[in-house]
Design brief:
single chain; 276 residues; alpha/beta; five-stranded parallel sheet; 33% helix
Length: 276
């Protein structure tokens, strides 16, 4: 599966929708996400909760609003969701994959699960393409997920690393939030507005075209090529508000053929509670 695209198109998913080893997950977020899922979701998709399944929320000062769960706890969650290490996982959300779908993709890749893709265009585009819909609860039989690793396998940085990065001219930290949040004009979620010193702004929305679909790998390469030509991958770190939408840009980078750089999970939600 090394050459598998991290993005799957709706027509491709339709073709494999009856595969017994396929597992589809709905990772929309928000206060009424589960209720909306129960009203309408892609057929045979299971709801995954960002706050309880993909994060272990404690004190935002220590790890931000959506810190990663302990590795072993997430592996147990995968089993409860019905994922086996050999299964093909497809993930979507209602934000064109720009929210928690990409976070779950990153987390699965980080436990060594390579057969995982995000649905291009998400729920709305699939519905527009007449993908079969269902309502009510759906679940898969539980498994025992076995990872050959005992810790996250994709690169990360922590707040102390970021403090060093902002003093290092050979390193760069990339902020994928919308420009008004980066510029401190508005801050709808966190306690303070602004950005990490010396961070560059590459808004995640630029990964998508006017239809809410990922731009072509070639177009994405053009967006990010200068960044990757000028810096060593080990010295590039991506962040957002709480380590969720940053994964959308990491997904876009992988789709474009780049190696996945560092993720700063704590992101602005942690930094702004400690350094502002």
């Amino acid at each position: 599966m090394q050459n598998q695209s991290p993005i799957i198109e709706v027509d491709e998913l339709i073709k494999i929708s009856e595969n017994p080893n396929l597992r589809i997950f709905d990772v929309r977020t928000g206060p009424v996400a589960k209720e909306e899922y129960l009203k309408k979701h892609l057929k045979n998709s299971v709801f995954v909760d960002l706050n309880s399944d993909l994060a272990e929320i404690d004190n935002p000062k220590n790890g931000g609003r959506h810190p990663l769960p302990k590795f072993e706890n997430f592996v147990k969650t995968l089993g409860k969701l019905g994922i086996d290490k050999d299964f093909h996982v497809v993930i979507y959300d209602d934000k064109n994959g720009a929210n928690a779908a990409a976070r779950l993709w990153w987390m699965l890749r980080a436990v060594g699960h390579t057969n995982v893709q995000v649905l291009n265009g998400g729920l709305q585009f699939a519905e527009n393409q007449n993908y079969p819909l269902s309502s009510g609860e759906y679940s898969y039989s539980e498994t025992e997920y076995i990872s050959e690793f005992n810790d996250w396998q994709l690169p990360q940085v922590w707040i102390d690393d970021v403090k060093k990065t902002i003093q290092d001219s050979d390193a760069v930290i990339v902020d994928v939030r919308e420009s008004p949040r980066y510029n401190g004009i508005t801050e709808p979620i966190d306690l303070a507005a602004g950005h990490i010193p010396n961070a560059q702004n590459f808004p995640f929305i630029d990964n998508l075209d006017e239809n809410g679909l990922f731009k072509s790998p070639e177009a994405l390469r053009n967006i990010y090529s200068e960044l990757f030509e000028n810096y060593d991958k080990s010295k590039i770190a991506f962040h957002c508000g709480s380590g969720v939408t940053a994964c959308h840009s990491l997904l876009a980078l992988h789709y474009a053929g780049f190696e996945i750089p560092n993720l700063y999970v704590g992101s602005w939600s942690e930094w702004s509670r400690n350094e502002v």
